[in-house]
User: What shape does this take?
Amino acid sequence: MSVKIRLQRRGKKGKPYFWIIAADSRSKRDGKYLEKIGSYNPTTNPAQIDLNVDLAVKWLQNGAQPTDTARAILSYKGALMKNHLAGGVRKGALTEEQAEAKFNEWLESKRESIDKKKATLTEAQEKVKAEKLAAEKAVSDKRAAEAAAAAAPEEEATEEAEATAETETEDNKEA
Assistant: This one.
């Protein structure tokens, strides 16, 4: 039995949500699986990935082959890196402590890059929001100016009408 690490689709139509699973390669995409390793939500930016790295490494060491998308996710979360370091420990190239230190260093650099991406995304959203507000304010100011310009001739006309009405009433009183 060959085992694959792959995605199993969940969620509604148009709103995908995936489980990362270890399954027999002959089973259906959404069918029976051996073990759930994590979850993946591509609808958020950046994508939300919850992965049990130790389980993924266990399955990789037992010979499970990840699909292309699963491989990208495992690489992104560091499961492939941890598996690689574990191979070095088995061969005697590294000690367990050195491998753990390298993995933690890699995780920290990855976390920093993710935080930078989130920061740039929020800055971009705030910039777009500010630009929309400025454009909306410009349109509002323009409308207010047009309304004031249109109201000014009407005020003059009403003042003239009041003045003529006063003179007519005075003429009527005299007569």
